[in-house]
């Protein structure tokens, strides 16, 4: 289980979701759809929404079949929508920082504010600036987690992991893996430079490039989720920069020595949002699905979905999680973690291009 | 009149043959046009568009190609792709030829089918799973390092995983199987009379192989080598998993354009560059070995 992140989960999901989706697909085949299911709901989602344990309660309760398609990266998801007919899709799961891209393309329907359990959602992840526009709500945060530092506590000094500058110091040279997604990684570099993720500008690029190069020189590899997990589990590396609960939780049973922390300078927080497609012909059913996902029960199932675990946005989901699950998610420590973390950078298209170019340069150095 | 009638009949028959020929060719032709020519033309056209911010600028320009040749990180992707592909192709040929020769010449006929099945057994495993398996084998605590450490060959684990070496190993493992098949099929078609004739003329075993067998099996080698080149240079998964992103090949850079930013014009331009590399490789092979006449 586990792995996670977001559009942010892009590459992570590319590989990790392959297996998860295959399993989900097989499960679907192995367990024939109920003969009474008549209506269908089409959702364009991340891999954590493919878990039958998440979908079945909604399907049974509403006499509906939920068809899910997984995509990797906001760009790819928007391309799928671009190639679809209006009405093909009813529900969209999207990177929290990219909701406005979908709103600007007029893809999302307004969701009545009173239809959502906003008060139950952790205030720090409500993300009104991202999920709303002109006072109207178009999406709602459903799950979140952290891009920070994962490590093997038997191989490194945990105290060293409290300082983000460890990622470009030579103390652990050759023992570090970098998570392969430029947005959170540049956000982390920004934090290391004392910059808020929301305030990164073009003027910061020289310093960011310098630190990326320094970080690269100390690292052994830059890898997706599964490769990163493999590297940590096999001892190929002892530290994963950009990792978090979504990397170590799945390994905790076999490798209790793996841990993660949020350094003094903070960490980057990722979040995924869910919304109803504007052209959906099943607006009510789609909204019902969104409400189910945001319900405490749906949130608990989503948080512990077979593809990857991460924190539920709804604080009341804790009532439906076991103590063991809450420990793995560090459910009770979220107040401190949320305070120390900042949302992904949300670059303009131009700055985004510069981020990507800087990342490409770093990989080729 | 009789001649005119004969000519007319002959022409009618020729027309009928021509129509029949077109009838046979048409499905393949339509298929190729629909699923290769049209998509390719669309991709070529898109490579001349441009992504500006979140907008797609549908005005033809060469900015994407200019970027490719001016930005070292992008151009280096092609260099890396070519280097890795050439290394993989050469090593795969060197390993596959003896294997194919042993199966064709040394394994009894009744066991050859079994030997071939064993040779291509790894094909039956998922490509992704196979790559991750190699990652485990090559890791610090993997089979290879542990073996070498235990027999005292090394005192410190070798850095094998997440390197170009790992990528090459993963590729070679796959392509040796492919090349073995193409070379084997060439070898078994070779009449033993060639070798007998060479022996009659006084050639020893090496001379027979070098001057007779090898030239006659070059078409098989080059066909396999070309397939290896095409599949290797366009592969994304193996370098992504085994290379540890310590260098990017062109397909990885193409994927990078698509994931978040959906820069399809740039991805299309890079894909065209990749196709040009394959085309050059084909022309080199075709001219050198005259594959079209083989």
Structure description:
The complex is a heterodimer of chains A (365) and B (294). Chain A is α/β, with parallel strands linked by helices and 365 residues long. Chain A has helices at residues 10-30, 52-62, 74-82, 99-104, 128-131, 182-192, 205-218, 225-234, 245-248, 283-294, 296-303, 323-329, 334-340, 349-364; strands at 39-45, 64-70, 91-95, 132-133, 136-137, 140-152, 176-179, 219-223, 239-243, 258-261, 267-276, 311-312, 341-343. In chain A, the strands form two sheets. In chain A, strands 1, 2, 3, 6, 7, 8, 9, 10, 11, 12 and 13 form an eleven-stranded mixed beta sheet that branches. The longest helix of chain A is centred in the first third of the chain and has 21 residues, at 10-30. The relative contact order of chain A is 0.20. With 294 residues, chain B is mainly alpha-helical. Helices cover 76% and strands 2% of the residues of chain B. Chain B has helices spanning 2-46, 63-70, 72-106, 109-119, 127-138, 143-150, 164-187, 192-200, 205-233, 237-242, 250-259, 264-289, and strands at 50-52, 55-57. Chain B is flat, with a radius of gyration of 25 Å.
What's the SSE blueprint?
The complex is a heterodimer of chains A (365) and B (294).
Chain A: H1 10-30, E1 39-45, H2 52-62, E2 64-70, H3 74-82, E3 91-95, H4 99-104, H5 128-131, E4 132-133, E5 136-137, E6 140-152, E7 176-179, H6 182-192, H7 205-218, E8 219-223, H8 225-234, E9 239-243, H9 245-248, E10 258-261, E11 267-276, H10 283-294, H11 296-303, E12 311-312, H12 323-329, H13 334-340, E13 341-343, H14 349-364
Helix pairs in contact in A: 7-14
Chain B: H1 2-46, E1 50-52, E2 55-57, H2 63-70, H3 72-106, H4 109-119, H5 127-138, H6 143-150, H7 164-187, H8 192-200, H9 205-233, H10 237-242, H11 250-259, H12 264-289
Antiparallel strand pairs in B: 1-2
Helix pairs in contact in B: 3-7, 3-9, 3-11, 7-9, 8-9, 9-12, 11-12
């Amino acid at each position: 289980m586990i792995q996670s992140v977001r559009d942010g989960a892009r590459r992570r999901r590319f590989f990790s979701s392959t297996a998860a989706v295959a399993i989900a697909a097989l499960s679907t085949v192995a367990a024939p759809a109920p003969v009474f299911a008549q209506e269908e709901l089409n959702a364009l989602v991340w891999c954590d929404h493919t878990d039958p344990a998440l979908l079945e309660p909604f399907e049974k309760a509403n006499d509906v079949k939920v068809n899910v398609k997984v995509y990797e990266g906001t760009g790819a998801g928007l391309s799928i929508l671009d190639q679809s007919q209006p009405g093909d899709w009813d529900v969209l799961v999207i990177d929290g920082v990219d909701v406005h891209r979908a709103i600007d393309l007029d893809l999302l329907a307004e969701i009545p504010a009173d239809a959502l359990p906003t008060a139950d959602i952790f205030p720090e992840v409500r993300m009104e600036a991202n999920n709303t526009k002109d006072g109207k709500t178009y999406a709602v945060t459903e799950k979140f987690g952290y891009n920070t530092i994962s490590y093997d506590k038997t191989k490194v000094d945990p105290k060293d992991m409290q300082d983000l500058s460890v990622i470009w110091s030579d103390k652990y040279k050759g023992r570090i893996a970098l998570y392969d997604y430029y947005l959170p990684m540049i956000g982390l570099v920004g934090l290391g430079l004392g910059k808020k993720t929301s305030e990164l500008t073009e003027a910061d690029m020289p310093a960011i490039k310098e630190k990326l190069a320094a970080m690269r020189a100390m690292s052994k590899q830059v890898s997706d989720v599964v490769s990163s997990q493999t590297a940590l589990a096999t001892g190929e590396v002892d530290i994963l920069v950009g990792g978090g609960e979504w990397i170590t939780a799945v390994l905790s049973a076999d490798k209790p020595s793996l841990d993660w922390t949020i350094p003094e300078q903070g960490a980057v927080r990722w979040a995924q949002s869910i919304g109803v497609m504007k052209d959906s012909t099943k607006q009510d059913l789609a909204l019902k699905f969104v409400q189910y996902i945001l319900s405490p029960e749906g949130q608990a199932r989503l948080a512990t979905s077979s593809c990857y675990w991460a924190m539920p946005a709804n604080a009341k989901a804790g009532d439906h999680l076991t103590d063991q699950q809450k420990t793995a998610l560090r459910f009770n420590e979220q107040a401190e973690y949320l305070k120390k973390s900042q949302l992904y950078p949300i670059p303009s298209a131009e700055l985004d291009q510069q981020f990507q170019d800087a990342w490409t340069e770093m990989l080729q150095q | 009149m009789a001649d005119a009638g004969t000519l007319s009949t002959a022409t009618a028959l020729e027309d009928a043959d021509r129509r029949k020929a077109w009838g046979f060719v048409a499905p393949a032709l339509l298929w190729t046009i629909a699923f290769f020519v049209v998509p390719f033309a669309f991709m070529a056209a898109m490579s001349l568009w441009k992504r500006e911010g979140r907008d797609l600028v549908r005005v033809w320009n060469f900015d994407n190609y200019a970027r490719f040749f001016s930005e070292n990180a992008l151009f280096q992707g092609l260099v890396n792709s070519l280097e890795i592909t050439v290394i993989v192709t050469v090593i795969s040929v060197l390993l596959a030829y003896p294997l194919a020769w042993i199966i064709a010449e040394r394994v009894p006929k009744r066991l050859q089918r079994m030997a071939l099945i064993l040779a291509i057994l790894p094909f039956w495993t998922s490509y992704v799973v196979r790559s991750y398996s190699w990652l485990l084998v090559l890791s610090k605590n993997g089979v290879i390092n542990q073996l070498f450490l235990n027999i005292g060959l090394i005192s410190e684990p070798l850095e094998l995983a997440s390197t170009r070496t790992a990528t090459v190993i993963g590729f070679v493992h796959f392509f040796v199987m492919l090349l073995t098949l193409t070379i084997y099929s060439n070898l078994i078609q070779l009449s033993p009379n060639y070798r007998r004739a060479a022996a009659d003329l006084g050639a020893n075993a090496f001379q027979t192989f070098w001057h007779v067998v090898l030239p006659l099996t070059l078409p098989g080698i080059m066909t396999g080598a070309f397939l290896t080149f095409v599949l290797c240079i366009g592969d994304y998964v193996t370098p992504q998993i085994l290379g540890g992103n310590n260098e990017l090949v062109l397909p990885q850079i193409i994927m990078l354009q698509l994931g978040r930013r959906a820069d399809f014009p740039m991805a299309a331009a890079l894909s065209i560059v990749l196709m040009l590399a394959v085309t050059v490789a084909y022309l080199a092979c075709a001219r050198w070995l005259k594959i079209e006449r083989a």
